User: Which sequence fits this backbone?
């Protein structure tokens, strides 16, 4: 008999990790309450604590702006390349048409 792995939503992971951070109950008590292995709760707690500083970091906004600028630049490049491709196709069709007349 195979057991199917349980999948937890990000919201439930955050809620359980937050309860572990509050330390009102032990990790073992939380594990028994939610039916999750204590090691898993400890991992979620560690991930929560490691991710919190980035939440309040000013670099996060800067990184998002840089990514948006890069995305905009790439979209412009795509547009330019599409226009160039259409121009080359048009010229190639004209060249093929002239060559067919000459034959």
Assistant:
């Amino acid at each position: 008999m195979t057991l199917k792995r349980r999948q937890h939503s990000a919201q439930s992971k955050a809620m359980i990790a937050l309860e572990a951070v509050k330390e009102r109950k032990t990790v073992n008590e939380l594990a028994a309450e939610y039916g999750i292995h204590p090691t898993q709760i400890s991992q979620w707690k560690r991930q929560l604590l490691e991710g919190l500083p980035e939440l309040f970091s000013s670099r996060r906004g800067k990184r998002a702006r840089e990514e948006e600028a890069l995305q905009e630049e790439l979209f412009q490049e795509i547009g330019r390349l599409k226009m160039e491709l259409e121009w080359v196709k048009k010229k190639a069709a004209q060249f093929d048409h002239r060559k067919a007349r000459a034959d």
